[in-house]
Amino acid sequence: MISVGIIGGSGYTGKKLLQFCNAHPFVDRIKIYANSTAGEKISSIFPDMVNAIEDDVIQSVSNLSLDNDLYFTALPHGEALYYVPLLISHGKKVIDLGGDYRLDSAEDYVAWYKLKHTSPGLLKSKLYGLADNCNANYDDYNLIANPGCYPTATLLSLLPFTSNFNNEIVSVSTVAYSGTSGAGKSPKAELLMSEMDGNVRAYNVNNHRHQPEILQQLQKNGFNSSFAFTTHLLPISVGIYTTTVIHLKNKIDVELINQVYNTEYSSSSFVRLRNEPPNLNWVVGTNFCDINISVKDKVVVITSAIDNLIKGAAGQAIQNMNKFYNWDEKLGLINSGVQYAQVY
Predict the structure, then answer these.
(1) How far apart are CA 309 and CA 6, in angstroms?
(2) Helix (H, G, I), strand (E, B), or coil: what is residue 278?
């Protein structure tokens, strides 16, 4: 049994972490830390959780204790830099759900996040925790950088292809769509229902902070072609949908591609390969990533769908916690022995 601290536990992702940890058979104590909601009870922030979880008082992050075994940091970029080095120096395990430790280079962090990185050594010693595609020995790490929501959906759908057919790729372009919860809980005028209802718009075109994260992981697997990444907001609260178009030098048989993906995800409980493009509502509320592959001539189209708050954040963080302790990855998420990685 372990005790868990959730730093930034009153946001959307923090709520999901709290729910999953509360359902986890090997988590026996949970402490929530926050800034603006410190001193309030959990029930006042999450009324729907009354009688579902012990109604503790949310602690101030300025009084962060060091008596938990593992800490989740679910904070806006820049803020985890104040807490992660302290926790690591005291031998704690940390899973950071923000963007502060995902990039390998402090220079790239400055360029994309416009902040100085104050613990650049941890960028080299962390593990990038794309859980369903990570074969590293978790015993060798104390810090996991939990991938972003867009990178999770994009990389899970794309990495098996780029790793196996890189020499055949001319270019890759990913168009991605997100619900508004990906922007966090802070009020923003452009995310009001009156602005988003019936509306779709591209944003951060050629300038999204998740683009270098995606490209970094692709290049680690030999990718050296042209890559474009364009994000859009949907008039929904939850979900990520990606459509990736790959142009090839020569046609590749779809059966061979499906074989590669089935092999890659044969041991994954959370990647489901579909015979048709997934619907977003198949995955919302779950930790699944649904993927479909279509091939015509020298063009491959790969679609994927995830829940941005679960698979793209809290659910994958729980997977990474389970891998930290060599537990079944499904614990706290699903309780089924069924494997989901075969095409159906």
Answers:
(1) 15
(2) coil
Query: Cα dihedral sign for 84, 115, 220, 301?
Result: positive
Spatial contact of 139 and 93, defined as CB atoms under 8 Å apart: no
* Residues near 273 by beta carbon (within 8 Å), at least 6 away in sequence: 258, 261, 262, 265, 290, 291, 292, 293, 341, 342, 343, 344
| Residues 287/333, Cβ–Cβ less than 8 Å | yes
**Residue 296 contacts by C-beta under 8 Å, 6 or more apart in sequence?**
none
184: left (phi over 0), alpha (psi -120 to 50) or beta: left
In our burial notation (b when 16+ CB lie closer than 10 A, e otherwise), range 116-155 reads ebebeebbeebbbbbbbbeeeebeebbbbbbbbbbbbbbb
pLDDT at 341: 46
Task: Answer whether 289's CB lies under 8 Å from 311's CB.
Answer: yes
**Pair 176, 153: CB distance under 8 Å:** yes
Residue 104 amino acid letter: D
- Among left, alpha and beta (phi > 0; psi -120 to 50; other), residue 199 is beta
pLDDT value, residue 36: 83
How many Cα atoms sit within 13 Å of 318 on the Cβ side? Answer: 32
Q: Report which of 168, 196, 172 is spatially closest to residue 182, judged by C-alpha positions.
A: 196
Instruction: Tokens for 114, please give them.
Output: 């416009």
Do the Cβ atoms of 106 and 117 come closer than 8 Å? yes
Q: Note if 149 is an active site residue.
A: yes
Nearest-10 Cα torsion for 25, 31, 36, 41: 80
Domains of the chain in sequence order: 2-125 (3.40.50.720), 150-307 (3.30.360.10)
Q: What is the mean pLDDT of each run of 10 residues along the chain (344 residues)?
A: 93 92 94 87 86 85 93 95 97 97 97 96 97 94 97 98 96 95 63 69 90 96 95 92 98 96 95 97 96 97 97 98 96 63 44
Q: State whether the Cα torsion 177-114-32-335 is positive or negative.
A: positive
Catalytic residue among 21, 134, 149, 289: 149
